[in-house]
Amino acid sequence: MKPWPHFQFALALATTIMSSAVYAGDKDAVEYRQHIMNTLNEQSAALGQILSGAISNYNATAHLNAIALTASTALKAFEPKVPGGEAKPDVWAKWDDFSRRMTEFAQKSSQAAKIAKEKGQDEALANILDVLTCKSCHDVYRDEKKH
Ligand code: HEC
Question: Which residues are CB-neighbours of 57 under 8 A, at least 6 positions away?
């Protein structure tokens, strides 16, 4: 076998190891919180279809549970101070405010899921726009890239 492919492989391996030591931790942290946000997005979109009447079923309680569970994981995902993605530096510069908003969002979602379970989904959906504070946080802390 020619030596070249080995060299190339060794180089690729070394690059991977080096970049994972230096960069991958940060990249992972950004991707992790984006996965959580995208989960929130999908579940809210599903809930929105039910709210608009486009989909008639009784899954709203399950979607609220999924949102509440996901919201409860969101704050921790932002704890590593890793600017990047669409997160504005203010997430960490104004951590008290950011974490209060995220905690309130998680509490309200969990409250809505509880109301859905105890009193039915219509009751829970009545104030859903007060629960899904996505936009008010994004307006301050997310720099939405033009896709
Ligand atoms: C307390 C603040 C806060 C709340 C509440 C919040 N988000 Fe976010 N969201 C962010 C920040 C900050 C980012 C940027 C993250 C990044 O790119 O690093 C973000 C990013 C996103 C993204 C883009 C993810 C990507 O792949 O780039 C989506 C989609 C999203 N949020 C949806 C939602 C939805 C839906 C809700 C409500 C159900 C919600 N968010 C609630 C702060 C919040």
Answer: 50
